[in-house]
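Tutorial, part two.
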Amino acid sequence: MPIKAVRDKHGKPKRQFPGKMPEQGGIDVDAISSVLGTDGTVKDGVIKFSFGREGQMSGTPIGGSMGLSTWAAFSGSQDLAAVDGDFIMTSDEVQAVIHALRDHGIHVVALHNHMIGETPKFYFLHYWGTGPAKALSEGVRAAREAQTRASSG
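Running the prediction step on this input gives:
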């Protein structure tokens, strides 16, 4: 959709994301883990999932423990949760991830890079969404799947 059409439809910027902030605790960790295909860590009512990548910085191998990771953190309840996180992507993956997140009602907050001299060149996308925990986790999974399809050709 052209930018002018989007602006015509939504001429006045929103002051906040829709919905209320959810209370902590009450998300079914196993259900979200099942959707995302991995176990999360739980701390203070927040469930975090991380997916590392590998690359190089000035010829030195680096990975998820050095910040090359996609992550998603969930808080709230099954019915009303918030998800916040980052995607790490190559340029070929950026549009696919953005479209998948937006198709699932998850907002893109920022897109930028964090490094200089990395191989391949990585971009970071910060996102935020609210809604049912299962739907949010399905949106994150859809973006990860779109990223995989984009990176493989």
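The mean pLDDT is 87. In part three we will examine how such features are distributed along the chain.
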